[in-house]
Specification:
Oligomer: single chain
Strand content: under 5%
Shape: globular
Order of helices and strands: HHHHHHHHHH
Number of helices: 10
Helix content: over 70%
Radius of gyration: 21 Å
Amino acid sequence: MSALDSFTRVRLIAGTTFLEAVRQKFFNSLLLISVALVGSSTFFQQFDFGAGDGELKFITDFGFGALFFFGSILSITATAQLFFNEIENRTALTMLAKPVYKLEFLAGKFFGAHLLMLCFTLVITLVLAGILNWREGAIIAQLGPEVQADGPLVRYGDVFLFGFLQWMKFGILAAITLFVASFSNTNLYTIVVSFFILIICQLQYIARDAYTGMEAGWERILVLALGLIFPNFQLFNVGDQLVFDVEQALPAAVVLRMTAYGLIYTVAFILLAQLNFRRREI
């Protein structure tokens, strides 16, 4: 097996998975709901957010929250559904009967789902950036050009940087969902367990804070182990450090470390999924 042949098989599986996912009503419905929710943030412009960029901060936080919430739902449910569709329709058995390795099958499913999340994230960030640009122009027209004395009100590059970091987090979620699906027998069980793991990852920083205050002992080792097993999703929640009220953008070294962190956990969970899936009877 050459690397080129393996890449071709993964690419074909990923392309088929992506097209299947895009055709799903769930994806289209969730995308429309997300866009509508982000767009509805402008409804609150009638409230008094104070002078300057208070309204823009609210819209940004609202959009970032919608991206994380609906993106997490889509990443877990779409990955689980795309995997079990192959199992239940027996197409996975037909595919694996050909010269397709189980790791290639899982990698193709992951890249197909991750490409879907890229489209979702890009659409939401584009809509959010468009709304921010519209409201920024309205604020400047209302308050005068002097409101821009200290620079632009919004750093739009940071909006897309946040979207990229969320996309990396969605990649970890998709890999975790594949790992759970590799030993699960039902779609519902996979989704429920994956959401529980999502909650653990979101609250993992609490365990790390507890670890720093613990004395040496088995409790400290247990907390440290849990902190290593489950990724810390709080690292990706840097919305407050972007777009507003910071002297400089997030350092490139920090972004690279966060990207490497996400890639390591993503690859690790896919490899663990492959170990389980290799022993599974289809």
